[in-house]
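Figure 3 (text version): structure tokens given as input.
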């Protein structure tokens, strides 16, 4: 009879261990997901008087002159 109880307790512990939720991994997964979300930034459209003004501003920001688009 004691052997049966030992086997039953072991089987119950195995089953319980297989069905429990690891709360620490769930919390860390939520933190990781939150950290990986990026903030979407809309580009700021500034109206320049001339194309030369736009190209000068682009050069100051380290952008190529092709970043300037002519008005349509």
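Below: residues designed for each position.
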């Amino acid at each position: 009879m004691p052997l049966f109880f030992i086997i039953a307790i072991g089987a119950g512990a195995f089953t319980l261990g297989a069905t429990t939720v690891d709360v620490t991994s769930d919390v860390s997964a939520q933190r990781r997901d939150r950290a990986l979300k990026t903030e979407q930034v809309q580009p700021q459209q500034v109206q320049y008087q001339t194309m030369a003004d736009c190209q000068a501003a682009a050069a100051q920001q380290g952008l190529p002159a092709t970043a300037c688009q002519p008005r349509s």
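The two ends are 91 Å apart (CA to CA).
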